[in-house]
Amino acid sequence: MFVVAVTVFVKPENKEDFVEASIDNATNTRKEPLNLRFDVLQCIDDPNRFFLYEVYKDESGFAAHKETEHYKRWREEVAPMMAKDRIGVKHKNIFPINEEAFFSK
Questions:
Q1: What is the predicted pLDDT for the residue at 105?
Q2: pTM
Q3: What is the DSSP string of 61-82?
Q4: What dihedral do alpha carbons 80, 78, 44, 51 form, nearest 10°?
Q5: What is the pLDDT of residue 93?
Q6: What's the average pLDDT block by block, 10 residues per block, for the chain (105 residues)?
Q7: Within 13 Å and on the Cβ side, how many CA atoms surround 83?
Q8: Distance between CA atoms of 2 and 99, rounded to whole angstroms?
Q9: Residue 78, CA distances (Å) to 18, 33, 88, 94 in order
């Protein structure tokens, strides 16, 4: 699996619009065949800081995601809402070993 974790700092006046745009992006991303998970999280201590947690079957799934219309729309729409550049960190998973284990208890 291939995981992307993105931290985004949003201008306070754009918080609600950012959430709306990000939910649209996440909802459409979940329909992509190689996407396994997309969480939009808001920091409790700093409600203007968000964390996007994306899981793909492999790196090609993330590459395909970056070519979708919904991602391009999100990227363009939220760029002026950001207080500073977003921070994206790519990961490979160590555990669980496969996607079935990732979603089971």
A1: 44
A2: 0.90
A3: HHHHHTTSHHHHHHHHHHGGGB
A4: -120
A5: 87
A6: 96 98 98 96 98 96 98 98 96 79 55
A7: 14
A8: 11
A9: 6, 25, 15, 32
**How far apart, in Å, do the first and last CA atoms of the chain sit?**
18
Strands (DSSP E) contained in the chain are 2-9, 35-42, 49-56, 87-92
Residue 93's CB is within 10 A of a number of other CB atoms, namely 14
Distance CA 13, CA 102 (A): 36
Token pair, residue 80, equals 């002026």
Domains of the chain plus CATH, in order, are 2-103 (3.30.70.100)
Buried b (16+ CB within 10 A) or exposed e, 50-76: bebebbbbeeebbeebeeeebbeebee
Q: Which two tokens stand for residue 89?
A: 């960190």
Nearest CA to 3 out of 105, 103, 104, 88 is that of 88
